[in-house]
Amino acid sequence: MGMTANFMQQHEDILRIAKEMSKLLDPNILGKDAQPVRSLLSTLSAKLKIHLASEDKSLYPELLNHKDANVKATTKKFMDEMGGISAVFVKYTEKWVSADTIQKNPNDFIKETEGLFSALAKRIEKENRELYPLVDK
To answer: pTM here?
Structure first.
């Protein structure tokens, strides 16, 4: 098992929850009852915060000291390109703190959630395709 196996599993978990949430991103559904999507958001938040903290405080710093210059350069590129996702996610969760907030503004919630999920999916896909295989070889 490679160094990134746990991170890959976390990616799968995050994408699974995002997919479940995406099924509920309908203004008619959210306008009536936003509690199921808010509950999923809480689960996603816990998993994503742990994942990002692990990457940012453990994996990425370790990779910046890797013996392979290509691993170092790729890690630095990823940090520069995608370092702001954690801050964006914190701001997002602070805004959508309750089911009531979502229920009152379903269209805004949907738009922001789709944008966030798009950014997350891109980061996960790039890490899975470019960075993690490089690290594990």
So the answer is: 0.90
CB atoms within 10 A of CB 105: 18
Q: How far apart are CA 52 and CA 92, in angstroms?
A: 15
Tell me the average pLDDT of the chain.
92
Taking residue 68's Cβ as centre, other Cβ atoms within 10 Å add up to 12
16-33 pLDDT tens trace: 999 999 999 999 999 999
